[in-house]
What does this fold into?
Amino acid sequence: MKLLGPLLGATVVARTAAYKCPDYLYFNLTNAAYMADCARLNYACTNGSSISFDITGGAAPPVYCWKKELFSLYFEDTNFNGSIVLPDVFETYRITFEGGWPARANVTAAEVEAFRNKTTIDEADILNLTGVTSPLLLNISSIDFPDLVNISDLSIRYSGNLSSLTMPKLENINGRLYLDLSHGPAISLSFPKLSQVKSDMYLGGKIDALEFPALNSSRHINVATTGDLDCLAFAKSVVNTTKWPVENEGPENRNSSVVCNSNTASVTMHPMPPPPEESTGSRDGLDFCRSLILLAILVAGASSVV
It folds into this structure.
């Protein structure tokens, strides 16, 4: 059942009141259209208020409400299945797709607090709090944000059915890229316009292909795949975008700017450090030595003539 593809992708007249949109948009089966309108249609106004305005008909919002509102988007409802398609979202703070261990319906605050205070957790504790001993996985099969350009963080975890992730216009991630697809099927990933990731990148799962053709600035890249990704070719293609030495690591890991493990190879690589700059003092000293050598040659030549 492809529920959210047509639901979130439809062009509709805004029906949500801007002041009712929370800063954090938690999507579920009952509020998906409402939250989609918040993400797509809300504009901030210079007087401190906001409006909901649909520009797809060609009309522009008022000049004093020109800036799109930014939200954090969360998709954590395991009842979702099929496709998530959300156009007309150009920038967000965070997008998170995550299943997990939801607390059982009758859990008490005291039980939650006791769980938090435990120093070790076993399956009995998980079962008592949630009613299950393994995480509930998202059933979403594809994710498409066709217009997204800028985002602070992108995270996907506990997703059991995802086989397609499409963000063709994404250029900047101002924080972290974290994609743990280890519970899902084989997938190929490409971010054709992504040029900058300011924090770390982690990508795991059965990844058979991975491309960042426009990447020119990143920090640390870690790929752990059970697929047939050519780790050597991938590492070579991105290593010069990373930082060296790796921050917040011990001496043994300072050179691990790119780590890639797959069925075909295990690669750890770092960019070549730039050559040390020649100081003015050393340059002056070298010129002085060269002058002395030249003077010695001239004196020797004059002596032989005499």
Summary: Helices lie at 4-9, 32-41, 109-116, 123-130, 231-238, 280-305. Residues 4-279 form one domain. The radius of gyration is 28 Å.
